[in-house]
């Protein structure tokens, strides 16, 4: 906080007014104390009391004058402590003193005078503190004298001087009373002096801060002065340059004046020549006028002659033109007559030929019309036969699929669909390195696939094979009836298997936009909710629950847990949480503590799918930019009740996206990716062991070898309708992995599981979600 000079002066003035009052009071008290000492005890030692201290002023304050003669010599205590004594005149002079500054902007001089003024104030404060200490010492000495006097009075009470000592005692008592009062006043004055000293210290601090600010401002002004000096130097340089320019301009002006004088002389000569030329022009104008008059007369004569010549030419031209036109007309009439005669002859010939041709055309038209009617009848018959054949083919295909599905359901086989993804730009192969082909025979068309490895062609046959140009809609149409079975009360399981980068996640999930890129899971949910709306008219009411989990490194993770927010969250969130898998007597599988969400529309499920996709474990490998590092299991539990028939159904739709199999030599996985790859390959190897055991119909099937196979136990060996998508990459570098996938799919297709059973008439619905 900065204090202005005027404010500081007013504050100092108020402080020293109080100091003056106190000084005058102390002077009076000193006189009364001396009188009391002389009255009370004439034998008091000369150094026991405080003498009237000499008031010496600063030579600076009193203008270099000697101390007042009435002040007396200086005391020993003052000279020993080094504190200068002050008189009332000195304090008043200090109060009325003003700063003597010639230039009010000279802050350095002002700060120096202010520092000197503060120094004198500090000396004055020290002097007051010394006076206060002397008064306290004198008070203690007086108390000691009073005690000695009382003691002496008691000792002398038995002597003959009792009356004299009694008077002395009374005088001592009065002196004691007066000293007590004086002591009280001194204490009060001491307290007020302490407060004033404190205020003076605060004022000193503020003045010190103000002095600091003045120094800073002074340094700032010095820097500004330095900048102004630099500016002045530049101005002086510019001034010198301007002076030089002026001198050069003056030289130019002198030369210009000389040129001006010469130009004036030339102008005079030009004026003289102009006058001479003017006279010559006047003469020439006269001669020119005469020539013009002669020319006008000659022109008039020429015009008259020209008019006569024009008249003669017009008459001659008219006669020649009339003669030419008559000759031309005669020739034209003769040629026209000859051409018309020839034309008449040709028209007679064409007319005779046309009549003959017309007779022939009528005969051929009749024949063509009869043939056309016959061909039209034949075409109509063929079209009807073709339509019948096509309808029979469609009906036969539908019947074949229905019978095939029925046979598979009766046999309990796992249906297998194969899908080959298109070649990508990253594959970097041409048409000459094609390793995947499709047979065109009627028996294997749409169901067969050929794989070429090292020049050897290997053929496989599945329930359905989709070529690379098959759309998501084409794929879903083939499984739509299977999805419908979930609403009818069946357990349905569809899972995708294949190597990394073969298109499993695209088949199951697809892309949110555009709509034709949606995968099987979004399309299945849309069909389920649309069919639910249709079945409501028949009295059916459905409740649906959704759960989503992943198996990552043989650990189950809940993808719909409330505090999951991303890829890193699941690893910390479920680190200590264990999910257990249990199978009940009805073949249902339950996962403990799994989050189950009631859904009422496909939009709600789409939101949950996006949330689960953000939480799912994915990573980058050399084989795939975004590789799924876990097995994803989507489960939709459907419970239906028909009020009219009191029938209850419970269906389960399991849609599973398995992690891709990969070889460590090709994926280049290290660290966490290496552990993930090992866990994925181990679980898929366990799945292969289960398939082998089922194919051989062994008594013991190793479902418990991994969390994946134990979770899929009802789908692989129970009463579920199960479909496997085997995804194949057409990349020649992946032909080994593709061959392994196709062989595994063939074994899966040969496995027989339990006959699908419809779950109806359930009395209660468990709040936990079954995935079996």
UniProtKB/TrEMBL annotation:
Gene3D superfamilies: Kinesin motor domain
Biased composition (Low complexity): 67-82
SMART domains: KISc
Domain of life: Eukaryota
A Pfam short name: Kinesin
BP-aspect Gene Ontology terms: microtubule-based movement
A GO term for molecular function: ATP binding
Record-linked InterPro entries: Kinesin-like_fam, Kinesin_motor_dom, Kinesin_motor_dom_sf, P-loop_NTPase
Keywords: ATP-binding, Coiled coil, Microtubule, Motor protein, Nucleotide-binding, Signal
Coiled coil: 337-399
CDD domains registered for this protein in UniProt: KISc_C_terminal
Keyword Cell division: no
Region Disordered: start-end pairs: 60-83
GO cellular component: microtubule
Annotated residues for binding of ATP: 498-505
Signal peptide: 1-27
Record-annotated Kinesin motor domain positions: 413-751
The family this protein is said to belong to: Belongs to the TRAFAC class myosin-kinesin ATPase superfamily. Kinesin family. KIN-14 subfamily.
Protein name, entry field: Kinesin-like protein KIN-14C
Source species of the chain: Sesamum latifolium
């Amino acid at each position: 906080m900065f204090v202005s000079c005027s404010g500081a002066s007013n504050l100092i003035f108020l402080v020293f007014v109080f100091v003056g009052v106190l000084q005058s009071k102390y002077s009076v008290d000193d006189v009364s104390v001396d009188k009391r000492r002389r009255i009370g005890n004439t034998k008091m030692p000369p150094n026991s009391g405080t003498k009237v201290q000499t008031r010496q002023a600063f030579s600076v304050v009193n203008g270099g004058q000697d101390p007042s003669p009435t002040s007396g010599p200086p005391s020993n205590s003052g000279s020993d402590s080094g504190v200068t004594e002050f008189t009332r005149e000195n304090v008043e002079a200090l109060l009325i003193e003003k700063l003597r500054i010639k230039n009010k902007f000279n802050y350095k001089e002002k700060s120096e005078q202010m520092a000197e003024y503060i120094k004198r104030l500090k000396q004055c404060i020290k002097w007051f503190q010394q006076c206060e200490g002397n008064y306290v010492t004198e008070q203690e000495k007086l108390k000691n004298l009073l005690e000695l006097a009382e003691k002496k009075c008691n000792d002398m009470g038995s002597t003959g001087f009792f009356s004299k000592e009694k008077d002395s005692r009374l005088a001592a008592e009065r002196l004691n009373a007066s000293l007590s009062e004086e002591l009280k006043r001194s204490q009060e004055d001491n307290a007020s002096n302490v407060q004033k000293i404190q205020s003076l210290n605060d004022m000193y601090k503020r003045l010190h801060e103000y002095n600091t600010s003045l120094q800073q401002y002074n340094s700032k002004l010095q820097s500004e002065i330095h900048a102004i000096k630099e500016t002045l130097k530049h101005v002086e340089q510019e001034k010198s340059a301007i002076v030089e320019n002026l001198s050069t301009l003056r030289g130019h002006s002198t030369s210009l004046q000389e040129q001006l004088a010469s130009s004036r002389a030339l102008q005079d000569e030009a004026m003289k020549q102009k006058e001479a030329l003017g006279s010559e022009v006047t003469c020439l104008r006269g001669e020119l006028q005469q020539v013009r008059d002669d020319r006008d007369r000659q022109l008039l004569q020429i015009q008259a002659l020209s008019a006569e010549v024009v008249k003669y030419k017009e008459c001659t031209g008219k006669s020649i033109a009339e003669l030419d036109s008559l000759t031309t007309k005669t020739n034209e009439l003769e040629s026209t007559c000859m051409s018309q005669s020839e034309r008449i002859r040709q028209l007679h010939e064409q007319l005779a030929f046309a009549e003959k041709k017309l007779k022939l055309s009528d005969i051929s038209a009749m024949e063509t019309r009869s043939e056309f009617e016959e061909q039209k009848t034949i075409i109509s018959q063929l079209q009807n036969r073709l339509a019948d054949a096509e309808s029979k083919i469609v009906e036969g295909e539908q019947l074949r699929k229905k019978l095939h599905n029925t046979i598979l359901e009766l046999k309990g086989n796992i249906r297998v669909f194969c899908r080959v993804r298109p070649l990508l730009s990253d594959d970097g192969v041409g048409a000459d390195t094609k390793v995947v082909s499709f047979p065109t025979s009627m028996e294997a068309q749409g169901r067969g696939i050929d794989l070429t490895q090292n020049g050897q062609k290997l053929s496989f046959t599945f329930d359905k094979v989709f070529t690379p140009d098959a759309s998501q809609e084409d794929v879903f149409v083939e499984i739509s009836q299977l999805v419908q079975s979930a609403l009818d009360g069946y357990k349905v399981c569809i899972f995708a298997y294949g190597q990394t980068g073969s298109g499993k996640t695209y088949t199951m999930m697809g892309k949110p936009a555009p709509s034709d890129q949606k995968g099987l899971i979004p399309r299945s949910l849309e069909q389920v909710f649309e069919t639910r709306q249709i079945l409501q008219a028949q009295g059916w009411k459905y409740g649906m629950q959704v759960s989503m989990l992943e198996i990552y490194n043989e650990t189950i993770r809940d993808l719909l847990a409330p505090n999951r927010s991303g890829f890193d969250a699941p690893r910390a969130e479920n680190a200590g949480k264990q999910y257990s898998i249990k199978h009940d007597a009805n073949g249902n599988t339950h996962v403990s503590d799994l989050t189950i969400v009631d859904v009422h529309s496909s939009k709600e499920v789409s939101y949950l799918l996006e949330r689960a996709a953000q939480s799912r474990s994915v990573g980058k490998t050399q084989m795939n930019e975004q590789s799924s590092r876990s097995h994803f299991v989507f489960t939709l539990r459907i419970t239906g009740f028909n009020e009219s028939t009191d029938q209850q159904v419970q269906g389960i739709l399991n849609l599973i996206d398995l992690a891709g199999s990969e070889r460590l030599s090709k994926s280049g996985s290290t660290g966490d990716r290496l552990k993930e790859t090992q866990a994925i390959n181990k679980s898929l190897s366990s799945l292969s062991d289960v398939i082998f055991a089922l194919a051989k119909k062994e008594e013991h099937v190793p479902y418990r070898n991994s969390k994946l196979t134990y979770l899929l136990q009802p789908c692989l060996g129970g009463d579920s309708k199960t479909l496997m998508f085997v995804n194949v990459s057409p990349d020649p570098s992946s032909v080994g992995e593709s061959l392994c996938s196709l062989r595994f799919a063939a074994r899966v297709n040969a496995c027989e599981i339990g006959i699908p059973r419809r779950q109806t008439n359930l009395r209660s619905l468990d709040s936990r979600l079954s995935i079996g």
